[in-house]
Amino acid sequence: MQFSNDDANQNHSYCENALGIFDGCYESSDDSVSIIPSFTNKPSEVRFKNVISRAFSILTRRNKTSDTNDVSFLGVGKDGDIVIDPSVYMPSAPPIEIDYSAYKEVLEVEPPEWLRDSSATACMQCSAPFTALTRGRHHCRFCGGVFCRGCTKGRCLLPVAFRERNPQRVCDACHGKLDPVQDFLISNISNAVQVAKHDVMDWTCAKGWLNLPIGFSMEDEIYKSSNTLRNYCKVARSNPEKSIPLAILKEAKGLAILTVVKAGAFLSYKLGTGLVVSRKSDGSWSAPSAIFSLGLGWGAQIGGELMDFIIVLRDIKAVRTFCSHMHFSLGAGCSAAAGPIGRVLEADIRAGDRGSCMCYTYSCSKGAFVGASLEGNIVATRMDANMQFYGNPCLTTSDILLGMVDRPEAAEPLYGALKDLYSSLSC
C-alpha cells in the first residue's frame, strides 16, 4: 500500500510522539516442513475444570483427532535427528503497512467519558436487559458505552492518548474500528517494544537478592529469569562440578526458567511462575513465553524452600512439549537446603498435547528442607501474561517459540544474561 511523503512524514511524527508520550509518564506493572499458524482459535482459560478435561484428553488421546492446531512442524535432519525446518522461523507474510491518513481519526481519538451505569438498563448493542447474575454491565474502553459481556468479548490495544499498553475490553463495533490498526499499535506502544526499566540485579536492588515465586507480568518474569541465570553463572564458576554439564547446555534447544516455592512434610506442595525460550538453528533466541507450575511431591521430606529452576530442553521434542497449552511432568529428585545455599537435582518425563520428552533440571534453593520424593507437576502457558506483554490476544505459544515473533526490546536483560551464560561456556 503506497502513500504520499506527507503521509509518511506524518506517520513518522506520530510514531515519535507515541514513544515520547509514554517515555517517563507510564511504567507497566505488570526435509521440508511447513507450518500454518492459527490465529483464530483462542485458547481456553486455565480453570480447574479445564485442567481435568485436558488431563483426560491427554490420557485418552482424544485430542489427536479434534485439535486443529496440532500441526507438525518437525522434520528429519541428515543425521537422523528430529529438527525444526528453518522456514518456520520466517513470518508467513511481511508486516502490514497502514495508510495513516485513512486511520487518523481512530489513531488520534481522545479517551471518552464513560456513561454511568444508570444510563442504560439494557445492552446498547443487543438490547438485552441487564441482570445481576447472568448479564452484567461492562464498559467499552474505547467509546465508553455500556454493554453486556457477550457484546464486549474483544480485546484491543488502544491509541496513544489512552495511555494503556495492555489490550482492553471493547464492544464489537469498536473492535471492528480498531482491528485494522492493531499491527501498528503492537509495534509502537505494546509492553514488548518498551525498553526494560528494571535491569539492576546487584546488591543495590532488593529484588536482586531473592526471586519471588509469583510474577504478575512478563516484565517480572524477565527480571526473575535474568537474575536466575546470572546467579547460576556465579555458581558454575565457583563450583563447576555442581553445574549443568557444558555439553548438555551447548546442545540445548531451549531453556525453561522458573522460581518455585515448595513446603510440606511427606506430602509437599509447589507453586511458581517463569518463562520459556527456544534456541534457533542459528544460535539466537526466540521471544519468551510465560508459564506457571503447580505440583505435588510425596516422599521422605520435610521443610520449606524457594527454588530457582533451569530446565534444559534437550531437543525439539521438548520445545514442542512446551508449545502445549498445558503439560504434565513426572519425576524423582532429591533436595537439600540449609539457609541461602542448596541444591536440587531432578530428571523428569513431560507429556502434553504436542508431544512428550525428557528434561534435566538444575536448581539453586534457599530455606530449610531435606528429602527425596516423587514429583508430579502441571505446567501451563500463561496466555493472559503473553497477551498483555505482546498486545495480541490471538498469539499462540507456537508463534512465540518458533520465532514468528520478533525479539522484544523489553526482554534485552534476558538475552544479555543468556549471552553471558553461553560466553562463559566457551571460555
From TrEMBL:
SMART domains noted in UniProt: FYVE
Entry keywords, A to Z: Metal-binding, Zinc, Zinc-finger
GO MF entry, a single one: zinc ion binding
Domain annotation FYVE-type: ranges: 117-179
Residues making up the signal peptide according to the UniProt record: none
PANTHER family: SH3 DOMAIN-CONTAINING YSC84-LIKE PROTEIN 1, SH3YL1 PROTEIN
Name of the protein: Putative chromatin regulator PHD family
Source organism of this protein record: Medicago truncatula
Gene name, Swiss-Prot/TrEMBL: 25486584
